């Protein structure tokens, strides 16, 4: 069960995306591709230190990657990091169907 | 839903079993029987009771699901909360007599991370967010 979900990663991903500003930043990066911190600050409408803080949380969850170019830092989304969330939701469908089969077998054995 | 930011995704599995509701109820509420088809557990059919499901730990999962009994409506409905890996949901079993057996409906709903406070004031619901996930991933879900 959930063999492909690392608890630590899943928690980091969920927590990172629990914040609406971070979610907005992440979605903006998935839509627009790579962006500088300046561009993201203009988009998010909060201060640059606040944006940097949000980006750090997203980075820890491996939802974004960054690279430096001169004085600018560029960020881009890593949508693969969302896999734990999608895995989670898909996983339960398969899980319960399998358990229903086992329940059926048990009922046959019961008097 | 009072909190618009709460995930509303629901998973429903239904099946008609050729057995009477009494037998289904036993399989759902007697812990040695539950262990035979679901997982090892210390479930007792008492509302408010806390219990755990335990399966074999894996590399990425400790195998523990923390639960609390929410509804025990003899032969009709059984519900418990279901928390694992920092994600909370609620499982609801509904038994309905059907021709030649029992219709069983399992609904698991309310998937949401455990920091509910963080969701207050969210701009849009998680349902919408999850709807966008598959687009983002381009369908390439593992």
- Number of DSSP strands of chain B? 7
Helical amount of chain A:
55-70%
Task: Quote the beta fraction of chain A.
Answer: 5-15%
Structural class of chain A: alpha+beta
Computed CA radius of gyration of chain A, to the nearest angstrom: 20 Å
Query: Mean pLDDT score of chain A, rounded?
Result: 83
Q: What general outline of chain B do the C-alpha atoms trace? A: globular
List low-confidence stretches of chain A: 1-7
Q: Tell me the greatest interface.
A: A-B, 43 and 46 residues
Q: How do the SSEs of chain A run, as a string of H and E? A: HHEHHEEH
Terminal residue distance of chain B: 31 Å
Report mean pLDDT of chain B, rounded to a whole number: 75
| Low-pLDDT residue spans of chain B | 1-8, 114-142
What kind of assembly state do the chains in view correspond to?
heterodimer
Give the radius of gyration of chain B. Answer: 17 Å
Draw up the topology in text.
The complex is a heterodimer of chains A (111) and B (142).
Chain A: H1 7-18, H2 20-32, E1 35-36, H3 37-44, H4 48-60, E2 64-69, E3 72-77, H5 83-109
Antiparallel strand pairs in A: 1-3, 2-3
Chain B: E1 10-17, H1 21-29, H2 31-37, E2 40-41, E3 50-54, E4 64-73, E5 77-84, E6 87-98, E7 101-113, H3 126-137
Antiparallel strand pairs in B: 1-7, 2-3, 3-4, 4-5, 5-6, 6-7
Helix pairs in contact in B: 1-2
Description:
- The complex is a heterodimer of chains A (111) and B (142).
- Helices cover 66% and strands 13% of the residues of chain A.
- With 111 residues, chain A is α+β, with helices and mostly antiparallel strands.
- In chain A, strands 1-3-2 form a 3-stranded antiparallel sheet.
- In chain A, strand 2 and strand 3 form a beta hairpin.
- Residues 1-7 of chain A have low confidence and may be disordered.
- Chain B is α+β, with helices and mostly antiparallel strands and 142 residues long.
- Chain B has helices at 21-29, 31-37, 126-137; strands at residues 10-17, 40-41, 50-54, 64-73, 77-84, 87-98, 101-113.
- In chain B, helix 1 (21-29) packs across helix 2 (31-37).
- Mean pLDDT of chain B is 75; it is low at 1-8 and 114-142.
- The chains are: A alpha+beta (111), B alpha+beta (142).
- The interface between A and B is large, with 43 and 46 residues.
């Amino acid at each position: 069960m959930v063999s492909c979900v690392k608890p630590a990663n899943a928690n980091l991903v969920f927590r990172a995306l629990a914040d609406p500003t971070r979610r907005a930043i992440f979605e903006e990066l998935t839509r627009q591709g790579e962006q500088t911190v300046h561009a993201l600050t203009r988009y998010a409408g909060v201060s640059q230190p606040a944006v940097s803080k949000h980006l750090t949380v997203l980075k820890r969850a491996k939802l974004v990657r960054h690279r430096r170019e001169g004085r600018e830092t560029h960020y881009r989304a890593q949508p693969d990091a969302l896999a734990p969330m999608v895995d989670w939701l898909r996983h339960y469908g398969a899980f319960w169907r399998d358990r229903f089969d086992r329940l059926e077998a048990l009922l046959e054995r019961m008097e | 839903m009072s909190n618009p930011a709460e995930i509303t995704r629901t998973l429903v599995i239904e099946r008609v079993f050729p057995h009477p509701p009494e037998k289904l109820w036993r399989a759902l509420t007697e812990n040695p029987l539950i262990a035979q088809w679901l997982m090892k557990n210390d479930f007792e059919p008492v509302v408010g009771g806390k219990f755990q499901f335990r399966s074999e730990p894996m590399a990425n999962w400790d195998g523990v699901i923390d639960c609390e009994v929410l509804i025990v409506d003899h032969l009709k409905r059984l519900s418990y909360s279901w928390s694992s890996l920092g994600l909370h949901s609620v499982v609801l079993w509904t038994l309905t007599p059907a021709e030649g057996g029992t219709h069983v409906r399992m609904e698991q709903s309310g998937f949401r991370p455990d920091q509910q406070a963080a969701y207050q004031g969210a701009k849009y619901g998680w349902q919408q967010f999850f709807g966008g996930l598959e687009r983002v991933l381009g369908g390439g879900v593992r």
